[in-house]
Amino acid sequence: MIVLGLSGLPHSQDHLRRTHPGISKLDERICQGLDSAAAIIVDGRLVAAAAEERFTGDKGTGALPLSAIDYCLREAGVTRDDVDLIAHGFDYERHRRAFEITGAPFDEVYAGATVIDGLTEAGWTRVAERFRPVRHHVSHAESALAPSGFDSALVVVSDGMGEAESMTIYRAAGGELESLHTQSIATSLGILYGIATRFLGFQFNSDEYKVMGLAPYGDPERFRPVFEKLARFDADRGAVVVDWPAGALAEPENGYPHARALLAEAAFTPSEPDGSIQRDEADFAASLQARLTDLLVDLVSYWLERTGERHLCLAGGTFLNCKSNQSIADLPLDGMFVQPASGDDGSALGAAYHVARTEGGGLAPVTGPFDPYLGPQYTEDDVRAALEARPDLTWRYVGQTDEYFAAAADDIAADRIIAWFSGRMEFGPRALGNRSILARPDGERIKDRINGAVKFREAFRPFAPAVLDADVDRLFVTRNFEPDRYMLCTAHVRPEARGTVDGIVHADDSARIQTVRPDLAPGFHRLLTGVRERTGAGVTVNTSFNVKGQPLIMDPATAIDTFAGIALDRLYIEGFVVEGKTQ
């Protein structure tokens, strides 16, 4: 049985832009159905998954993921007609009447027919009979539960919104999901965090990670009363309550101006962001982050106690917040899994899991950790052709040899900044060593050098470390749960190790770690082992191989062009060493 999973609503953002032609760039992601992706499951086994943005270069696109679909089919070695079922990570049909009463463009934007018609126009046949809509939060829940390997677990989904929900609590046993609690969009923690992000001058539903990165520079007590008044935990119902005044959530297409005015009245009037750390903004971000964390800890604690579960699965965009995940991981748990693609790209994966489990003959047993390296990979010939198209670059072929890995480790040890391109592309927003920029974490001004001359981004933005499993406990304080593998949880740096990893220590002495083990990333593990032999610690700066506004790089040509335009010392790509421009 072959199940294709899809996410995205292909007409959603186009409709927003068309009906609001003057919309600000900061507000054009205030719509549902972005981050489209495709995933494919063959006989219960996940074979491939990728986001459409990686193929088109349109970051966060919600367009019908035709390129990602074609990749998944190629990787699985199947045709369109071989696909038995098509799972979509939304099911709005049960809400049709409510949407039509409000005047929402249901048939144009939300109906499953938008996907069916899009595939049909692209040459697919029998789409309607194979199409299976899946509730959005069920898709998120399955994306975390299915690969976790847990026999039973508490599953928490939190995001901006599903069809009509913003949070759902499930109890899972025997692969089945029992819904225990749901919350409406009006009480969305994702929307609260997004509005606060927009208040600070960043893009809604895109730049929340910047606010998370700014928060450690601020005082969380200064604006704590603002958020305590706005959001609280109801311990009688096990619910998060967000007390927006009437009308506060009106005009989302204008960036929720009424909600932002309320925040300004209660706190301050923000300045336009200029990449620097401004006191009011940092304190605001710190208070927001602290409140989010407190609420999530209270929520998860309540439902763990009520259900008696000792294993936890998390999914939805809220749980890309690594700081909150760290505090959740400190709860009395025996195991914790966060889907690496917790945003809506991951709902394609979850929808496929759900349909494969319920209609497609079941899922293959989980025999190891979730493998996020699900995207395209490229051959030596692919890379050589891309390099030969750039006669202005100097390069040499070494092959995947000891010399190749030693040269890369030597460069890192010598405080050079390199790009590392290897194997299959990661699924999800985090670079996990296959499309990464790497550097020595105690290198001279390493954070400023990468932010300024390589990534072209705000100076306050932190970097993450990739660290060998053999060194993680020596350098960091962590419970070693699965999220550590995928850069989904921060950990405190041990005081005695601070000098070793100074370039990745954030203002609160934490770091968003990726623990590297040979089972998932043998090549990356081999490289870090070489770094350890040279520096005494198997740890590097690991940041995504892209520049500001660009999706994570997928293919050799994009990698080579990007390398040529930024201040990297070398590019290591599938056995080739690219030195730079010909003098």
Count of all domains = 3
Mean pLDDT value:
96
- Strand arrangement, major sheet: 13-23-22-14-15-21-16-20
CA(first)-CA(last) distance: 55 Å
Keywords:
583 residues; alpha/beta; Nucleotidyltransferase, domain 5; DHBP synthase; 8-stranded mixed sheet; 21 helices; 23 strands; globular
Structure description:
It is a single chain. The chain is built from 21 helices and 23 strands. The chain is of the alpha/beta class. The chain has three domains: 165 residues, Nucleotidyltransferase, domain 5, CATH 3.30.420; 112 residues, no CATH class; 202 residues, Carbamoyltransferase, C-terminal domain (DHBP synthase). A hairpin with a 2-residue loop joins strand 7 and strand 8. The N and C termini lie far apart (55 Å). The model has no long low-confidence stretch (mean pLDDT 96).
Provide a short characterization of the protein structure:
With 583 residues, this protein is an alpha/beta fold. 35% of the residues lie in helices and 20% in strands. An 8-stranded mixed beta sheet has the order 13-23-22-14-15-21-16-20, sandwiched between helices.
What is the topological layout?
Blueprint: E1 2-6, H1 12-19, E2 37-42, E3 45-51, H2 53-56, H3 66-76, E4 85-88, H4 96-101, H5 106-110, H6 113-121, H7 127-130, E5 131-133, H8 136-148, E6 152-158, E7 165-173, E8 176-184, H9 189-199, H10 208-214, H11 224-230, E9 231-234, E10 239-242, H12 257-266, H13 279-307, E11 311-315, H14 322-329, E12 335-338, H15 345-358, H16 380-388, E13 393-397, H17 402-413, E14 418-421, E15 435-439, H18 446-455, E16 464-468, H19 472-475, E17 476-477, E18 490-493, E19 510-512, E20 514-516, H20 522-535, E21 539-544, H21 556-565, E22 570-573, E23 576-581
Parallel strand pairs: 1-4, 4-5, 6-11, 11-12, 14-22, 16-20
Antiparallel strand pairs: 1-2, 2-3, 6-7, 7-8, 9-10, 13-23, 14-15, 15-21, 16-21, 17-18, 18-19, 22-23
Helix pairs in contact: 8-15, 9-12, 9-13, 11-13, 13-14, 17-20
